[in-house]
Amino acid sequence: MKKLLVLFALVIVVAGVVITKTTVKAQDNIESKDSSVIQDDTIKSEVVTLDQTKEENTDLTKSTILLGGEKKSGFNFLTIIRGLFGMAVLVMIAWLFSANRRKIDWLVIGKGLAIQLLLAVCILYIPFVAYFFEFVGKIFVKILDFTKVGSTFLFGNLMDMNSIGMIFAFQILPTIIFFSALTSILFYLGVIQVVVKGFAWVMVKAMKLSGSESLSVAGNIFLGQTEAPLMIKAYLPKMNDSEMLLVMIGGMATVAGGVLAAYIGFLGGDDPVQRVLFAKHLLTASVMAAPGAIVISKILMPQTEKIEEQADVKMENIGSNFLDALSNGTIEGLKLAANVGAMLLVFFAFIAMINFIFTKVGSWVHLNDLIDNATHGNYDKLSIEFILGYLFSPLMWAIGVCKEDITLLGRLLGEKLIASEFVAYTSLAALKSSGNAVYGSFTEYKSIIMATYMLCGFANFASIGIQIGGIGGLAPNKRGFLSKQGLRALVGGSIASLLSATIIGMILG
Length: 509
Hints:
Elements: H1 2-31, H2 35-38, H3 40-47, H4 54-70, H5 77-96, H6 106-125, H7 127-155, H8 164-189, H9 191-207, H10 211-220, H11 241-253, H12 257-268, H13 272-300, H14 322-364, H15 367-374, H16 384-398, H17 406-418, H18 421-433, H19 445-454, H20 461-474, H21 479-484, H22 486-508
Helix pairs in contact: 1-6, 3-4, 5-13, 5-22, 6-7, 6-13, 6-22, 7-8, 7-12, 7-13, 8-12, 8-14, 9-10, 10-11, 11-13, 11-22, 12-13, 13-19, 13-22, 16-17, 17-18, 19-22, 20-22
């Protein structure tokens, strides 16, 4: 335990020094600029000016969001305390759900948390690392542009409509199809296998993982919760309980590359600066989720058996040649896009139906007026959004969200768990663009970024069934374990994403 505390203290100190130096430089750069650009009051007044041109509005929005992030003070005593408190709360929740509390290897847990923190600091504050992730983010943005060319050919003027539904149907869903095809090509060429093996090697050496589970978790950074286990199909039937739970939580805590590209397009809109900004944060969230999933998994079900560190990527032939791989990836992407579209249609319709019932009940018992007065107009009736927002608001406060935004993030977390991360990201995009504040309906820029990390994962109730069907099909002898541990995996995946959000919130200050 002493080693754990010393290790984590050193990481906090090093991170604090790095961020402090970077923040001082950033503040000096900001202060040297024209005061008409950086003063919050000026920005706010310009944002609401009605006679601005479209181009001026776009440039101002970019500056507002970017300056909002840069003007944060970074690490200070209060943010460190809030961050450490939030991390402690999340670890405690995982400990309460643990299957074997006495066997938890706290040194491994400490290493995992330290790796998560160092990843976040390096990606956001170390220049060459930040530039690399921005470069990868720009690649994702370019992929969105390539997709738009094909979508414009197919849908024509429908691509120019600005309603959320049109954007999603004719811009976001095609992105999923194209990226699925691209992923298939990268697999055919062996690129993804090499990158995954590199990540897996680091995890084996740093966190005492078996080769098979590390390959699966590393694969989840790029692939979905049923695709990544395909790489270790031969090992799945022989995995012990701790390894199998990590495979499940790794799938719940991360997202596939195809939907990651879709989120970038959805949150960034048509603004290239915002696209790169959210691409960088979503990529960071995806990478941070891997050690986070390991930390929470090894608390929920500690490793008590001998492990095999060696494992090879073994995957069925994805295509007989380049064109065959491209075609197979396109077909799989079409299936995924159709599933996502159908799921959103049903869930939004279902939420509307439930809200209609709640509103009627609230009207009959005079709850709607009470809610309107109690929330100062933030919620004007009994609804799912109101219930979820206040149900999860204590947890949102614990992880460091400002008090003005805790119900908004609580609502988003609830939507993710009950429906899906797509539904929640849809709400986040709408909230980010609505309201009179500089940051839409949010009070702080940090809340938007923390929500981006918190929602970046497949942890929802539908995923339990997906894993039972997908992973259970690869290893029928594990179907019982998958069914029994589904809820524990859901909790673990959610906590892993919340852990990333907590760390990023602590760093942003």
